[in-house]
């Protein structure tokens, strides 16, 4: 294909992707309210358990509508993402070798799976404890929380995306191992330094100062690092077998 044919192909893929996002946003708008209720459930539960009014507030007349529209856009992107990835694949795949196409396809599924596993862990494990701590931190003082939906959903977005990205650690280690940048021996030898880095990352992404919440963030990261060591060992073992087989021939 010529340069202008590539541009025409790129334009086609961008138009198709944009149309899918628009359609996904319309679908997202119709399901945004029950999704909002689902996302708000941990906050409502924390407030109710603390004996407080279990309602989130909005301080602008269009606050709730703006939140619905914002969530609809996020949902539209999420709904359209498989089709958008397919469009990217159609544009990129013709320029790849067969083994490269297989490698990318094999890489996408576990990457998406780990990300959604991180979202699930954040929602069902981290958020309930985090919100319970934040709500009850004021104790018996003359203060009461007035949680706005905008600030709450900003917090949820940061926590969910942060944990989702952290859960990609085994895939990052996989890539580094494939390119020979790290080995299982190197990862194990520097385990204590990895713990220090994990603690720093947990301290940065943890929105509360208490040690227990930080430990809850750290625990899955340490487990994922150990899983990454196993993944690295698997990659190194396969590379050695392939090198031995090639040397035999």
Radius of gyration: 23 Å
Structural class: mainly alpha
Number of beta-strand segments: 0
Pattern of helices and strands: HHHHHHHH
Question: End-to-end distance, in Å?
Answer: 38 Å
Tell me the major beta sheet.
Answer: none
Give the helix proportion (percent range): over 70%
Average pLDDT score? 85
How large a portion of the residues is in β-strands, by DSSP E? under 5%
Number of helices: 8
Q: Are there runs of 5+ residues with pLDDT below 50, and where?
A: none
**What spatial form do the alpha-carbon principal axes imply?**
flat
**What oligomeric state is this?**
single chain
Q: Helices, strands, pairings?
A:
Blueprint: H1 3-49, H2 63-92, H3 98-136, H4 149-166, H5 169-178, H6 184-189, H7 191-205, H8 211-248
Question: Which features characterize this protein?
Answer:
82% helix; 249 residues; mainly alpha; 8 helices
Characterization of this structure:
It is flat, with a radius of gyration of 23 Å. Helix 1 (3-49) runs parallel beside helix 3. The model has no long low-confidence stretch (mean pLDDT 85). It has helices at residues 3-49, 63-92, 98-136, 149-166, 169-178, 184-189, 191-205, 211-248. 82% of the residues lie in helices and 0% in strands. With 249 residues, it is mostly helical.
